[in-house]
Specification:
2 helices
């Protein structure tokens, strides 16, 4: 097996350096297959899930920003 290259977010410890969780998350076969299809060769599921979480956080932030912008209630600021 090829040695894993650590593809992790800046400032974060590589997955191998963190304490692994012992929890299991039950998913359907279809979801597992989709998840496996997103994983790159040599990438861990831990890293894949970290990336997915970060993307979701950013998506939610932008959705919140859009919702606030659509309300259009802003106060002019003096610079």
């Amino acid at each position: 097996m090829k040695a894993e290259t650590h593809m992790h977010a800046p400032g974060r410890k590589p997955a191998a350096a963190r304490m692994p969780a012992t929890s299991r998350i039950p998913v359907s076969k279809a979801v597992w297959a989709e998840l496996a299809g997103l994983k790159r060769p040599g990438e861990t599921y831990d890293h894949l899930l970290e990336e997915m979480i970060e993307r979701e956080k950013k998506n939610r932030l932008f959705e919140d920003m859009d919702r606030i912008e659509k309300r259009g209630k802003f106060v002019a600021m003096k610079w």
